From TrEMBL, chain A:
Main location: cytoplasm
Location in or out of the cell: Cytoplasm
Keywords: ATP-binding, Cytoplasm, Ligase, Nucleotide-binding, Purine biosynthesis
Pathway assigned in UniProt: Purine metabolism; IMP biosynthesis via de novo pathway; 5-amino-1-(5-phospho-D-ribosyl)imidazole from N(2)-formyl-N(1)-(5-phospho-D-ribosyl)glycinamide: step 1/2
InterPro entries: PurS (IPR003850), PurS-like_sf (IPR036604)
GO biological process, one term: 'de novo' IMP biosynthetic process
Reactions performed catalytically: N(2)-formyl-N(1)-(5-phospho-beta-D-ribosyl)glycinamide + L-glutamine + ATP + H2O = 2-formamido-N(1)-(5-O-phospho-beta-D-ribosyl)acetamidine + L-glutamate + ADP + phosphate + H(+)
Broad class of enzyme this protein falls into: ligase
Protein name (Swiss-Prot/TrEMBL): Phosphoribosylformylglycinamidine synthase subunit PurS
Organism annotation: Intrasporangium chromatireducens Q5-1
From TrEMBL, chain B:
Assembly description: Part of the FGAM synthase complex composed of 1 PurL, 1 PurQ and 2 PurS subunits.
Primary subcellular site in the record, as a coarse category: cytoplasm
Gene, per the UniProt record: purQ
Protein source organism: Intrasporangium chromatireducens Q5-1
Pfam families according to UniProt: GATase_5 (PF13507)
The protein's name in its UniProt record: Phosphoribosylformylglycinamidine synthase subunit PurQ
Amino acid sequence: MGSIVVDVMLKPEILDPQGQAVAGALPRLGFSSFSDVRQGKRFVLTVDGAVTDEHLAQAREAAEKLLSNPVIEDVVSVHALDEGHDGGHDGDAQQVGAARTQDTAVRTAAHETGEADA
Amino acid sequence: MRVGVVTFPGSLDDRDAARAVRACGGEAVSLWHGDDDLHGVDAVILPGGFSYGDYLRCGAIARFAPIMDRLVPAAQGGLPVLGICNGFQVLTESHLLPGALIRNDHRKFNCVDVDLAVENTSTAWTSDYEQGQTIRIVLKNGEGAFVADNDTLDRLEGEGRVVFRYGVDEHGRNPNGSYRNIAGITNERGNIVGLMPHPEHAVEAGYGPSTDGRGFFTSVLKHTVESAATA
């Protein structure tokens, strides 16, 4: 079985109350280095057999249509999960449509999450 | 005058909405989310609640229910549709109304009586109100902050499509952090209205903070009768 990971983040300009709550809790635990927290969503889509380009294309479509709301969220990345890793730093990372990834907001959001593959 | 009220898994206020329709002289028709038929109703209410447990995003899964395949084109064709609370969330997820509803800025669920300024009385659901009138109805939500980009907000205000605005407290804050204090909006045609507060809980003396919610239901009744007369 293969897996596809879809990462979704709130757009940078949208208030993130959950991230703020986490940011507020960190200093109380002694984590004082983090000036902000943004919380996102990760979906793991499982397919039978290896992940194909068609699977990835369908995952991108699902990400735009259902998994994210383009009014408030960006699809940061859609990529096959490398079984040798735990995700997030996969060598075969594939980006969503070129138009979206050219968007400054997406790159900013990806940067904020520390995604190596963005 | 038949007003359909859609029940999704997790809808909460469908019965109250149906009761409000009847209390104001209409016939309420129960519509089921899995039924791809509007049964010839003259208007539709998407009620409050927590459809599909608010999983994924509020309203995101309900938006793809079979009945929505019928409702979306009907609404685009002029059928009066009112989305209350979760219903408003379904309307934004369906892109029938712009913007989105996110978690309250103070992160708490709140249940309070709110004063709303009525800013548009030309919609199918608000013609029985006076321009600038203040109504008091109940607001109860955890994810009711209306957000949109500035261009969308400017357009809504410029086109008079902000239907209701929250009153603010002494610090200038509204109850959930909605941008520009927007509580309810309409589409260009004025047949679709969505708002977070609950008019259906304010239609009978002794229940709720007022009977100010009746205007929604009497307005759509008149709208439908007038539409039939001119058809």
